[in-house]
Amino acid sequence: EDFRPRIVPYYRDPNKPYKKVLRTRYIQTELGFHERLFVAVLTSKATLNTLAVAVNKTVAHHFPRLLYFTGLRSAKVPHGMVLVAHGDERPIWLMYETMHYIHQHFGSDYDWFYIMQDDTYAQAEQIKALVTHLSINQDVYLGRAEEFIGGDEQARYCHGGFGYLLSRSLLLKLHQYLDSCRNEILSVRPDEWLGRCIIDFLGITCVSQLQGQHYRTYELAKNAEPEKEDEEEFQAALAVHPVVALMYRLHKRFSRFQLDRAYQEIQELQMQIRNLTSLTPAGEAGLTWPVGINAPFVPKSRFEVISWDYFTEQHLFSCPDGSPKCELSGASKADVSDVIESALEQLNSRYQPLLRFSKRQLLNGYRRFDPTRGMEYTLDLLLEAVTQKGHSHVLVKRVSLVRPLSKVEIIPMPYVTEATRVQLVLPLTVQDLDFVANFLDMFAMNTLDTHDNALLTLLFIYHPYDAQRVSQVDVFAGVKAMVGELEKRYAEVKIPWISVKTEVPSQVKLMDIVSKKHPVDTLFFLASVWTEINLEFLWQVFFPVHFQEFNPALVYRGEQAASSSTDFLRDGHFDKHSFAEACFYNSDYMTARTKLAADILDRDEVLESMEVFDVFLHYSGLHLFRAVEPGLVQKYALRSCNPRLSEELYHRCMLSNLEGLASRSHLAMALFEQEQANST
Question: Which of 336, 421, 525, 526 has the smallest count of CB within 10 Å of its CB?
Fold first, then answer.
């Protein structure tokens, strides 16, 4: 019953004031589902930089969540490892503290807990597959069962060197007895101590087989050669122990086993598909190439045709910046080299030993991305074919290749919960005054009326001339009056403002001022005066590409604006030149800003050529998320581009204005009508 979803009826007390119901972002969280597997690696200060690093580089990224536990830690933790230090190297104490920590922090989040040592090699995929076949309703203590030292009883403990699996139900029952076990059970080995604790207080013994699943292990000999290990027991092992200096070689060997099994399964599936295709209405004509991959996308009109990009070994003739020709470099160059190499490998595997091919030149190359199947390539290769007798011949051969889409993975990203308070930051200049009223109205409607957990801070940017006259004429007096009216309407809301005097409103310098006035855990949403506030697209570091509406005078030319959703995207475009909106945590910004300060020293003029996006991109080390956001819409307005900013920022602002006028068809129609009017 603990694992069955329950419907909790919603009841609203009419005598209490309205309060927004906070719901989780994912239904999995609301229904109380748990993550599948948590992995704990027991290490030590002496082996942290050797064995633990080897585990981290080989199998750690295959597990959904993995932590390292040690008694004492070195001054510097290896990169990419989450380490928990308990402050004591005694083995029993380390095991006790680790079990207590796992229960306290992860006991309610995971169904299975896998404990291993840093001298253990575990086949991550097989471990994950194992837990999917076990029922979570039982108390499970699964591993390599061993007899207690000097004992003749039937009970067994799980050998720590080969890893062992604990169910959540067992962990929850065991936690209340951990203190008693620490005080009453004497043992030298931590795995024996834990096994004795589970047996004495829960009456559960270690097993190597459960619910039809076997926990297979392999004990590695002292002078073993992983490359020569071929026996079935070795290939089927879920865990290998002891591993001292062979972790990487073992990983390579087991990866080869997995790859061979995958290729064998692919061949068997393709054979089954070929056999079944003849029984379908289309017959063998319905067989796609490659076998088992989706058929190419068939366009229904000329507007849906996927274009091919032409390339050679040196140049690409479809460039990201729109230029007709650019040098082939980086990932694109590596991609082309890999495709050519794969083509030669396939040709030689098909025709050897009769013929052996070698590449002379890539004459023509074409590629396109088909979202239904992957990246397609067509290559015209100038080849030299050599026979068994040594005769050579030059020929041209066209080959087609497909790099299919692999298994889709969900990338874990920290998301903003409903309980997170969002701090909106709105920089304002004199040129923005005409649009402030609309922004505040939208803010009140979308956040204050809905009781969203959001605050607003205004950043008044005074020109030095206006700052000198602020006591006589305050250019932002109207805005401050509107803020006062808003605070009267919403008694619980306070909207602070910060005044800044500058001729060059650098985004980074302004953010520095705001950052110092807020706690490090603040989530900032940097907005512009044209932004229509919506809190549904907040992530850890997100720079959304807003949808910019075109100039209605050019799009509609006096006609009624279209209201249907089908014409929505026709009336605007996603403004890729604007980085005015951003979402990030203050702690992340402060960390990146500190690295930037150390890099530029006292050259503050460099900040005038940078935006917050550049700070995160070059100095944060975080994965930045930048994508189109249809929910972030801006009405058309001609931006004021400050010529005192850097040339790049000024040029980007001008491009944003020009491309935001209208589409090519709208501009062409406007020019046509103008010429018609002039001619008459």
Answer: 421
Query: Which range, 47-51, 443-447, 638-642, is most confident?
Result: 47-51
The model's pLDDT over 414-438, given as tens digits with 9 standing for 90+, comes to 555 555 678 888 888 888 888 888 8
The answer to whether the Cα torsion of 463, 466, 468, 471 is positive or negative is negative
pLDDT band at 537 (very low <50, low <70, confident <90, very high): low
**pLDDT per residue as tens digits for the range 77-117:** 888 888 999 988 899 999 999 999 999 999 988 999 999 99
Per-residue pLDDT band for 564 (boundaries 50, 70, 90) equals: very low
Determine how many CB atoms are found less than 10 A away from the CB of residue 644: 12
- What the chain holds in terms of domains, given with CATH numbers, is 32-248 (3.90.550.50), 309-404 (3.10.450), 422-671 (3.90.550)
Separation of alpha carbons 221 and 243, rounded Å: 9
Question: How many CB atoms lie under 10 A from the CB of residue 110?
Answer: 21
Cβ contacts of 23 within 8 Å, gap of 6 or more? 30, 418
Cα separations (Å) of 133 from 1, 170, 291, 525? 20, 17, 30, 44
CA nearest neighbour of 401 among 289, 305, 508, 479: 289
Tokens read off for 524: 């900032």
CB 143 within 8 A of CB 164: yes
In 421-465 the beta strands, taken as DSSP E runs, fall at: 422-428, 454-462
Q: Residue 570's pLDDT band (boundaries 50, 70, 90)?
A: low
Q: Both tokens of residue 632?
A: 């972030």
Q: With H, G, I as helix, E, B as strand and everything else as coil, classify residue 356.
A: strand
Residue 105's contacts (CB-CB under 8 Å, 6 or more residues apart) are none
Q: What is the pLDDT of residue 538?
A: 56
CB of 67 closer than 8 Å to CB of 84: yes
pTM of the predicted model as reported, rounded to 2 decimal places: 0.61
Joined tokens for residue 473: 């004429």
d(CA 528, CA 510) in angstroms, rounded, equals 13
* Burial (Cβ within 10 Å: 0-12, 13-18, ≥19) of residue 434: exposed
Tell whether the model's pLDDT for residue 221 goes beyond 60. Answer: yes
- Among 143, 175, 169, 172, smallest CA distance to 157 is for 143
Please state, in angstroms and rounded to a whole number, the distance separating the CA atoms of residues 567 and 475: 39
Instruction: Report yes or no: 110 and 126 within 8 Å, Cβ to Cβ.
Output: no
* 593-604 as b/e: b if 16+ CB within 10 A: beebeeeeeeee
Measured CA to CA, the distance from residue 101 to residue 111 in angstroms comes to: 16
In the structure encoding, which two tokens stand for residue 100, read together?
């207590």
How far separated are the first and last CA of the chain, in Å rounded? 83
**Could you tell me if 481 and 433 are in contact, meaning their C-beta atoms sit under 8 angstroms apart?**
no
Mean predicted lDDT score pLDDT of the chain? 86
Q: What is the 3-state secondary structure (H, E, C) of 473-516?
A: CCCCHHHHHHHHHHHHHCCCCCCCEEEEECCCCCHHHHHHHHHH
